[in-house]
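HUMAN:
Could you generate one sequence with tokenized structure?
ASSISTANT:
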Amino acid sequence: MDWYLIRSKIRQEFLAEANLHRWDIESFCPQIKQTKARRGKKQTVIAPLFPGYLFSKFDLGRDYRKVTYAHGVADVVMFGSTPAKVDDSIIQGIRSRMEDGFVSLDSYSFSPGETVQIQEGPFKGLLAVFERELTGTQRVALLLKSVSYNARLIVERDLITHVANI
């Protein structure tokens, strides 16, 4: 049996996972804890790591219809006419980052106004000013420093480092 990528109906990842389990089909919807401001108060909420998606391990010939008709499932993600297989190492990699049932994401401590350096990509080596983290993503907004102008740039959080660490 292989792992496949499943697209859930909007905000029904956990319902889809529960219904697949009822059919004795292994599924995995990694979760994270996030702190969000609601009505002026900070609250910890549980959210899927990949909103709208989960993983399921099943026999394609035997269980495909069960999976596609499970409550909460929108469809099996396809590449052309072939269901999207997910390598076991990806599932194990996600599971290895779990603590107390939730995926632990690396925390970065950048402060607004701090100078950072971009480590990869087309802007590698350039200095920028950290502006803010973008909510619910692993991206940050930076102000790119240049001699003649400053430009706003959005990059993956992993691609920047503190200038003091260089």
